[in-house]
């Protein structure tokens, strides 16, 4: 069955430090992959997406993610974290299940940024 | 010019009541969704409509009834509310093609007392 795993429930980094949020997926075909960010009291905003081509994709707010088929991973990175990046981050895969296209979300990673 | 808007933002009600949440999108998308986010932030698909036709109906109690009067609107009606229905409900839309992302509303926080 299709699934998305985000192994880290919480991550704390200092402002200015680099960041990597992990995401692993399970899907038989080439997946459509997305990263979203949710600030408190807000809906989810798309950071970036991958569906083909260059495996390193750039997104908004200085984020990037790398698709690694051999590891079934789509990790999110940022070279230097800002205090405003503190939020909940969700990885998602678009997959066809039972003939219907669905978005399957991971359980999220809460990022805390220390000043 | 909000893309996906849902009302109300907060909803506090007592057990046994019936309530509705409304959602509208002005993106011209064909597909709309309802997601439930629990206290642990887990997002679970509830329903999806494509051009007013129900295409996804997950294992949701039949107290929950979605209605799509047109492809820009998807409302959620909940009968006989229970404590366990307390959550944040998100409406979302997409063009319906596999590589297109979801566009989310800001959520409705439902609290059942």
Write the layout of secondary structure elements.
The complex is a heterodimer of chains A (115) and B (113).
Chain A (H helix, E strand, L loop, with lengths): L2 E3 L4 E5 L4 E3 L2 E3 L5 E7 L5 E7 L5 E3 L5 E5 L4 E6 L8 E11 L2 E6 L3 E6 L1
Parallel strand pairs in A: 2-12
Antiparallel strand pairs in A: 1-4, 3-9, 5-6, 5-10, 7-8, 8-9, 10-11, 10-12
Chain B lengths: L3 E4 L2 E4 L5 E7 L5 E7 L5 E8 L2 E5 L6 E7 L2 E6 L8 E8 L8 E2 L3 E5 L1
Parallel strand pairs in B: 2-11
Antiparallel strand pairs in B: 1-3, 3-8, 4-5, 4-9, 5-6, 7-8, 9-10, 9-11
List keywords for this structure.
heterodimer; A: 115 residues; mainly beta; six-stranded mixed β-sheet; four-stranded antiparallel β-sheet; globular; B: 113 residues; seven-stranded mixed β-sheet
Mean pLDDT of chain A: 93
Characterize the quaternary organization of these chains.
heterodimer
Largest interface: A-B, 26 and 22 residues
Over all CA atoms, what is the radius of gyration of chain B?
13 Å
Q: In sequence order, what are the helices and strands of chain B, one letter per element?
A: EEEEEEEEEEE
Question: What value does the average pLDDT of chain B take?
Answer: 93
Q: Sheet bearing the most strands of chain A, described?
A: 6 strands, mixed
Structural class of chain B: mainly beta
- The helix-and-strand class of chain A reads mainly beta
Low-confidence stretches of chain B: none
Strand content of chain A: over 45%
> How many runs of DSSP E, i.e. beta strands of chain A?
12
Write down the overall geometry of chain A: globular
Low-confidence residue ranges of chain A: none
Q: Biggest β-sheet of chain B, characterized?
A: 7 strands, mixed
Given the structure, what is the number of helices of chain B? Answer: 0
Task: Describe the structure in your own words.
The complex is a heterodimer of chains A (115) and B (113). In chain A, β5 and β6 form a beta hairpin. Chain A has no helices and twelve strands. Chain A has 115 residues and is mainly β. The mean pLDDT of chain A is 93. The N and C termini of chain A lie far apart (41 Å). Chain A has strands spanning 3-5, 10-14, 19-21, 24-26, 32-38, 44-50, 56-58, 64-68, 73-78, 87-97, 100-105, 109-114. Chain B is mostly beta strands. In chain B, 0% of the residues lie in helices and 56% in strands. Chain B has no helices and eleven strands. In chain B, strands 2, 4, 5, 6, 9, 10 and 11 form a seven-stranded mixed β-sheet that branches. In chain B, strands 1-3-8-7 form a four-stranded antiparallel β-sheet, with no helix packed on it. The chains are: A mainly beta (115), B mainly beta (113). Chains A and B meet through β5, β6, β10 and β11 of A and β5 and β10 of B.
């Amino acid at each position: 069955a299709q699934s998305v795993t985000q192994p880290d429930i919480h991550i704390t980094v200092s402002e200015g430090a680099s960041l990597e949020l992990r995401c692993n997926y399970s899907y038989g075909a080439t997946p459509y992959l997305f990263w979203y960010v949710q600030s408190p009291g807000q809906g989810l905003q798309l950071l970036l997406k991958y569906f083909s081509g260059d495996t390193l994709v750039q997104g908004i707010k200085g984020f990037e993610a790398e698709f690694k088929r051999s590891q079934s991973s789509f990790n999110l990175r940022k070279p230097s974290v800002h205090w405003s990046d503190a939020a909940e981050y969700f990885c998602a895969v678009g997959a066809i299940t039972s003939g219907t296209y669905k978005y399957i979300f991971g359980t999220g990673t809460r990022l805390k940024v220390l000043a | 010019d909000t893309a996906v808007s849902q009302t109300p933002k907060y909803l506090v009600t007592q057990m046994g009541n019936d309530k509705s949440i409304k959602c509208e999108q002005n993106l011209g998308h064909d597909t709309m969704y309802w997601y439930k986010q629990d206290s642990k932030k887990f997002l679970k698909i509830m329903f999806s409509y494509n051009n007013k036709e129900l295409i996804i109906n997950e294992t949701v109690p039949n107290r929950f009834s979605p209605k799509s009067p047109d492809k820009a609107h998807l409302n959620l009606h909940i009968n006989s509310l229970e404590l366990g229905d307390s959550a944040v409900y998100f409406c979302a839309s997409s063009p319906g093609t596999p590589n297109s992302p979801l566009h989310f509303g800001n959520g409705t926080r439902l609290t059942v007392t």
